[in-house]
Structures are given as C-alpha cells and as structure tokens.
Amino acid sequence: MIEQHNIVTTPKYNFPQAQIDLEFPKRFVELSLNSLKQTINSAFQLDQQFLQQNIKEQLYVPRPPARPIPLRPNSSETPIAAVDTSSIKLGETSKGIVIAIRGTSIWKIRHSYGYLRVGPFIFHITEENLNEVYKILQKTCFPEENLTSPRLMQITTRMSNLLEKWLQASLAKSINNGIILFDGSLTAGTADTPVHQLKEILTIARSMGNVTLAFTKVTTLRFNGYLITDMLLNQKPPCLIEVPDIKPRPPLALLGEIYVAKLSNGNYAFRLDIDKEIPHELRIEAVERLLGNDIITQSYPETLRLAHILCTFTANEVIAMQHFIQKRYGLRIVNRPDMHRLLFGPFGKGESGNEAL
Questions:
Q1: What are phi and psi of 236, to 5 degrees?
Q2: End-to-end alpha-carbon separation of the chain, Å?
Q3: How far apart are CA 212 and CA 277, in angstroms?
Q4: 84 in helix, strand or coil?
Q5: H-type alpha helices, the chain
Q6: Residue 286 in contact with residue 213, Cβ under 8 Å?
C-alpha cells in the first residue's frame, strides 16, 4: 500500500520573497536562452545520460566508532526542509552539448508539504561559451569566489552544484528553527564545494535557528575493512553511532560531525553529517525532532526523498525537452554511429562509458 502525501504549493508556505535574491535564477534563464540561440539549424544527436556527481573522499577512520546512541522521537513542532538538484545531457551538437538542470526545495510544516521547483534550464554549452556561462553564474551566486572554469564534460555537475548551493542558501534564510536536509555530505574543499561556500550556508542556517543534516546514500568510509554503515545493522533502531577523529587530507575539510544513522527497521543505515558548530546535545535533539516530524522509511527522511523525486527528470520530460529545442531552434536530428557498438558488437560499452580524454 502506497501512502498518499498531501503536497501543495500555497502562498502560506512559499519563501518570503523579501529574503530571496532572484538575480541568480534570472541569470540562469538569460544564459539558457542565449546559449540555445547558438544551436539554430544545427545538427543534433539525441542522448539521455543522467550525470551523477561523485566525490571521492580520502577519509580514514582511525579508531572504532563509539557506542550506539538510542533516539526517542520528539514530536515538538519543527519545520523540515530539503534541497536536491538533477542534471541530464539531452544531446550533442557539432560544437558542444545540450544539457538540462532542475532543482527542488521542499518543506513540511505540520502535516502539509510545500515545494518550489526551479527549472528545467536548458543550455547549449560549447568550448567557446563555457567560461563565460560558468563565470557569470558563479559571480552572481558567490561574488567573492574566483574558481577556475571546469572542462566541458564537468560543466553540467558544476552548474547543477551552483543551483543547489543557491537553493540551500535560500532555504537557510527562509526557514526558522527547523531541520534542513542536504543530499550528500558536509565535506568541503573540492572544486564543486569550496569551503567558504558551505561555511556561509551553514552560518546562515544557524543564525536562523536551523540545524543542517546531510544524508549520504553511498559512502566509502570503512573501519578495519568494513563499511561504517554495516556497524548498525544489528542494532535496534532508531539510533546513531558517532564516528570520531576523522582527519581529512587537505584540501578537504569536514564541516560536519559524522554519524551512522539507523532510523527505522530494516537493513538500512546511512552516513549522517551534522553541522559541527552545533553542540553535541543539540545535534542528537535535531535527529529526534526529525524522527518526530517526518516520515522515516528505510532509515531515510521522506522530505529528502520527495526533493529527489520532484527534481529528477522523467523519460517523458526528456523527450518533451528534446522535441521543444528541435522545433524551437530548427535542429536537424542525426544518428551518429556508436563506435563502441559498431566495432565491438555486444562487447562494446557504449558511448556513455568511461573514456579517458
């Protein structure tokens, strides 16, 4: 039986407009339209490749995690909010790639969900406009940063990350005394997540009385060869285990304390990062308030699950976007041969496989 959720978009729960800087999404729209004008009457090869951001963290667990911390759900009224973004490559032209990016913020207040879905933004990215597009978006979102532009095949995840950071900052300014959920970790110091950016977002969240929790679906952290998420499988939920004294290698920085969370029955546990500037007792209390105010299935919060679902592109949406840009800009659909399949038959891995550039 599938539970039906009450998901509504109402003025009552929309972001307070006075606190939100809309310059960033405006730039997204402008750059999207300008980049697509360069595709007029071009050849276009369709593609549907979801792009995943994978950060390989070189972290080492020096000593055994602590004892499990039992949790008691706290049902005192607390807003729960989450952010997620999604990106996909729609196809290729003779000059570059056509991509789409979308983000979602979702919040649960009392028993109702509200959401803000931003996008999809469709871009035509080439070697010629890559630097301009990225620099404009970066300076609009984080004026003090001066990051180097990514390569063409990295641009999609970097642009998606900028949209995600803008949504996170906007949510941090708009929610009071709540729990904010991120997808991923609170590790900074990578090209996608500079330390200053994440620190600024966490500081804003704390100033509004919020606690930031980040759930990592897949972790590589191990102790004695075993994944840290396997350490709680035999424990009675809900509970946490703190993983202390992790020392990242520069330039990585851990802005959260790392826990393993098993929040419901079943063989599911996740790495959970909680803002390390929050006192220990308040971190535990925040997880207990999450348990008392959100639906938890398979140890995962429903609000964060819905954020992912609402930003992910469906097959119908992908076809619709491809059809739109084809008709709007007069693109000519071409079918270039997949050289891996052509040369190696059933042993070819396809064009989307990893290839050294």
A1: -80, 125
A2: 48
A3: 10
A4: strand
A5: 23-37, 130-141, 155-174, 195-207, 280-293, 302-311, 315-329, 339-344
A6: yes
DSSP SS3 for 11: helix
The pLDDT assigned to 13 comes to 41
Nearest to 187 by CA among 53, 307, 56, 51: 56
Q: How far is CA 256 from CA 6, 7, 188, 238, in A?
A: 32, 31, 10, 20
- How far apart, in whole angstroms, are the C-alpha atoms of residue 197 and residue 165? 8
Q: How confident is the model at residue 154 (pLDDT cuts 50, 70, 90)?
A: confident
Instruction: Give 177-246 as a DSSP string.
Output: S-EEEEES--EE-SSSS-HHHHHHHHHHHHHTT-EEEEEESS---EETTEEGGGGGTTSPSSEEEE----
Q: Is the pTM of this model over 0.85?
A: no
Q: Are residues 103 and 77 in contact, defined by beta-carbon separation less than 8 angstroms?
A: no
Given the structure tokens 């390569």, which residue do they identify?
Answer: 151
Mean pLDDT for the stretch of residues 122-138? 89
Q: Determine the Cα–Cα distance for residues 160 and 116; give it in Å rounded to an integer.
A: 16
6-63 pLDDT per residue, tens: 544 444 444 444 456 677 778 778 887 887 777 775 656 666 554 444 445 555 555 5
Tokens of 167: 């949504």
CA distance 304 to 301: 6
Residue 157 reports pLDDT greater than 70: yes
How is residue 83 written in tokens?
């952010």
What tokens appear for 211 in the block? Answer: 């606690």
- What pLDDT does 225 receive? 62
Task: Assign 334 to helix, strand or coil.
Answer: coil
Q: Strand 43-50 vs strand 332-333: parallel, antiparallel, or unpaired? A: parallel
Domain layout of the chain by residue ranges: 11-338
Q: Which tokens belong to 144?
A: 């003090």
Q: Which amino acid is at 345?
A: G
Give the three-state DSSP class for 71: coil
b vs e for 242-256, b when ≥16 Cβ sit within 10 Å of the residue's Cβ? bbeebeeeeebbbbb
CB 317 within 8 A of CB 86: no
